[in-house]
Amino acid sequence: MPKGEILAGYLAPHPPHLVYGENPPQNEPRSQGGWEPLRWAYERARQTLDELKPDVLLVHSPHWITQQGHHFLGVPRLTGKSVDPIFPNLFRYSFGLDVDVELAEACAAEGARLGLTTKMMRNPGFRVDYGTITTLHMIRPQWDIPVVGISANNSPYYLTTEEGLEEMDLLGRATRAAIEATGRRAVLLASNTLCHYHFHEEPEPPEDMSKEHPENMAGYLWDMRIIDLLRRGRVKETFEVLPRFIEEAFAEVKSGAFTWMFAAMGYPEIPGELHGYGTVIGTGNAVMEWNLVKAGLAHAA
Q1: Which residues, including other chains, have CB under 8 Å from residue 141's CB and lie 6 or more apart?
Q2: How many angstroms separate the CA atoms of 189 and 48, rounded?
């Protein structure tokens, strides 16, 4: 078996408003559009993903919360309806996805070997969270690539931020080892928003873009600082300021997907490609790509 490798990582935020604005047949609510800059950013990301031709998509979502350990989807085929508990008026999505159970089990085993608490999710009626579904729909609406879904055990919220992110670093290293051992050509999806300050009331209709702007100026400036560092490939400096960014911008990257993804990729000091930035109910969202094939760190199909 050839050695597996990570082809790319994407910062792939999950506001359900983006699915709502796109009006796919799987989602019950209908919209007049909205959030076009972010939806078009995802369209550009879809094009590069298509060129990579991965075997599997791995997604870490902050909305599948497991307080004890890191859990992995472990059922070959999952179907059902995913509903956003905060925005059920926008997101009631009938999903069907195939799971790469072999790779998921390898990730869990490697994580346990590194000292993490891991568990396989074997419930065939499990309702996949809206964060996982939104990210997967926006990056690959065809739903034709198997996935590995990973939970957020929220260790950065119960430990110090630094201790929690160290655990996510271990999870990333375990993920990389599992990908290499199983021969998979994999793409990683960090389902994270940046600044997470948000409005508490939505306009009528929700897609009224005249009401959409950053909720917090300081958070917006932090987003621009982080994106600028990432666009210039200054990854080490990004992680040096990450705890302060998390604290001052209430950044959702605290939940760990961003750190997991970069740890799995080996923290490559390469420029990230910004496909687009926009706000959703005031939160900051960037769709970004780190293409390891283009950087010469992985092999083309």
Answers
A1: 24, 46
A2: 14
Rounded Cα–Cα distance for residues 91 and 81 (Å)? 10
pTM score: 0.97
What CA–CA distance (Å, rounded) separates 283 from 16? 12
State the residue for tokens 């076009």.
Answer: 36
Please, which residues bridge with residue 119 across strands? 71
Quick one: pLDDT band at residue 67, thresholds 50, 70, 90?
confident
> Where does residue 2 rank: exposed (0-12), middle (13-18), buried (19+ CB within 10 A)?
exposed
Q: Find the length of the chain.
A: 301
Q: 154-163 long-range contacts, Cβ below 8 Å, gap at least 24? A: 154/65, 154/67, 154/255, 155/256, 156/246, 156/254, 156/255, 156/256, 157/254, 157/255, 158/67, 161/243, 161/246, 161/247, 161/254, 162/243
- List pLDDT tens digits, range 2-15: 999 999 999 999 99
Nearest Cα to Cα of residue 188 among 266, 128, 79: 266
